[in-house]
Design goal:
17 helices, Formiminotransferase-cyclodeaminase, Chain B, domain 1, flat, 4-stranded antiparallel beta sheet
């Protein structure tokens, strides 16, 4: 799975959009990165830019943007309401998908080191990327702001982590961090009362509310021995919240910032607000997501509500997201389009239609056309997909069989694994065609000189091995599917046992078909040890698949009678 990082640099320019455009243009030159949002503020004279991509590419785009900002923004002339100390004031990296915070910290420090070397001005690391405790808090790092930098840089305690300790009046300094994903999330109430909405917000937010003497709302604020207000903490960690009235919708909302969704998720925030509201005779009617959200956060929410209903989790990604949207009421105020709100979906948007995006008739027509791809490999992958889909269907039906309620988790686990295999095999439908296209690209490479011939040969060998490994992966995943098919034939819903049998037949065809594609490409590979090894492994997979198919069909035919 592709690793994704979000980068949210804040540039100290919010009035001259030609400058901002030149900076964001640099970001868009990097392949593997997508610019998601540009949010300028005139009063703050600051622009927040959001882009996402693979880690190394995000670091590269950030460096290019910081260089352009250093070239175009003159901090000695900057005025604005927001705290700031540099042309690129802050540059946080945020883990989005398939990457840990520890890994993100390494990329943040890599970014900071490169900026220090290549741009040459002071760079500080804060939050999770900080090298010492006092630098974790951005307020400490930026204390004194731009105007206080000359003195700050003279203090050995505030020597920059990277870059020069000399004050650069044009660029100032930059703070680089790694932090968790922040979600702006509003929950709708069936009331117009801001006061009651605030009471709910105080119940749930981490800061809670101030304690009053006698525990009465009208009592004096209770103080500790140092004279500081005593607070009653709220229910949710890493959550900021306030109640407000939205005239546009005619309802009050709980406006929340979930500053670390690994600590408090959107579904946990929703349930906590619902519980607090109910105690006050108020009902939650829905919610509103502001900005974008990672795919995993939506899938986790959907699965959370499915578990509460004791429903199988082994359904498609689309259906899980639909459950999340309906359960959270994200479409109450306006339509919620996952393709426009989920980061990974935005990144994967393409003008070119994939094979798996075609309907059945289109896919058949494309296969039958006078073009060599899609061919047997893609069809084998799709047969494997259909085979495991049938087993997943049996698992889901079994999870909801009347009288088997106590077994829903058992069958849900099989359905989840089946869904995972289905998704992987579906991807291979397009990957097989892509592997053929890579061979054709290599064939068309120039071969006039010895250097060109060598490059063409290397590309041909690499592309041909890829054309072997894609159908080989189809074989491996298809054989793995047989375990679930066999289990469903043994313990699944009796009325669907024939579906398990058809699934076994489809998977056997997928393995044998993919094996033909493996073998036909062997002649193009000069590495005979590679060929020998792949042939042996593929033969073992086909042998085991044939064995599994026979055993499954015996079980199925015996049950059918």
């Amino acid at each position: 799975m592709k690793q994704l990082i979000e980068c949210v640099p804040n540039f100290s320019e919010g009035r001259d959009m030609s400058i901002i455009k030149q900076i964001t243009d640099q970001i868009e030159t990097v392949e593997g990165v997508k610019l998601l949002d540009v949010d300028p503020g005139k009063a703050t004279n600051r622009t927040v830019v959001t882009f996402v991509g693979t880690p190394d590419e995000v670091v590269e785009a950030a460096i290019l943007a910081m260089k352009k900002a250093a070239e175009l923004i003159d901090m000695s002339k900057h005025k604005g309401e927001h705290p700031r100390f540099g042309a690129t004031d802050v540059c946080p990296l945020v883990p989005v998908a398939n990457i840990t915070m520890e890994e993100t910290v390494k990329y943040a420090r890599k970014l900071a080191e490169r900026a220090g070397k290549e741009i040459g001005y002071p760079i500080y690391c804060y939050e999770n990327a900080a090298f010492e405790e006092k630098r974790k808090n951005l307020a400490n790092v930026r204390a004194g702001e731009y105007e206080g930098l000359p003195e700050k840089l003279k203090n050995p305690d505030w020597k920059p982590d990277f870059g020069s300790s000399e004050f650069n009046p044009r660029t100032g300094a930059t703070a680089v961090s790694a932090r968790n994903f922040l979600i702006a999330y509003n929950i709708n109430l069936n009331t117009t009362s801001t006061r009651r909405a605030n009471a709910i917000a105080f119940d749930v937010r981490e800061a809670g509310r101030v304690k009053r003497e006698g525990d009465k709302l009208s009592g004096k604020i209770a103080k500790d021995k140092d004279g500081n207000p005593v607070r009653i903490p709220g229910l949710l960690k890493k959550v900021k919240a306030i109640g407000w009235y939205i005239e546009e919708y005619g309802v009050a909302q709980i406006s929340m910032n979930l500053t670390d969704i690994t600590v408090t998720t959107i579904q946990e925030a929703f349930d906590a607000v619902e519980k607090s509201a109910n105690k006050r005779g108020i009902r939650v009617t829905g919610s509103e997501l502001v900005g974008l959200i990672p795919l995993n956060a939506m899938l986790d929410a959907g699965k959370y509500f499915l578990k509460k209903q004791q429903r199988s989790l082994g359904i498609s990604e689309t259906e899980i997201i639909k459950i999340a949207v309906k359960s959270l009421g994200l479409d109450e105020l306006k339509p919620f389009n996952p393709q426009e709100r989920i980061i990974e979906y935005i990144l994967n948007k393409s003008s070119e239609k994939k094979l798996i995006d075609h309907n059945l008739s289109e896919f058949a027509d494309k296969t039958a056309a006078e073009i060599p791809a899609p061919g047997g490999g893609s069809i084998s992958a799709y047969m494997g997909t259909l085979g495991i889909s049938l087993a997943t269907m049996v698992a889901n039906l079994s999870a909801h069989k009347r009288g088997w309620d106590e077994r829903w988790e058992e069958f849900s686990a099989y359905a989840e694994k089946g869904e995972e295999l289905k998704s992987k095999l579906l991807k291979l439908v397009d990957e097989d065609t892509a592997s053929f296209n890579k061979i054709m690209e290599a064939v068309r490479m120039p071969k006039a000189s010895e250097t060109e011939k060598k490059a063409r040969y290397t590309a041909m060998q690499k592309a041909t091995k890829n054309a072997i490994e894609v159908p080989y992966n189809i074989m491996k995943l298809s054989l793995e599917s047989m375990k679930i098919i066999k289990t469903m034939a043994q313990i699944g819903l009796q009325a669907s046992v024939s579906d398990a049998g058809v699934g076994a037949l489809a998977v056997k065809a997928a393995v044998s078909g993919a094996f033909l594609n493996v073998k036909i490409n062997f002649s193009g590979v000069d590495d005979k040890n590679y060929v020998r090894d792949m042939l042996h492994k593929a033969q073992e997979i086909e042998k085991e698949t044939i064995k599994q198919e026979k055993e499954i069909l015996e079980i199925v035919n015996e049950k059918i009678g």
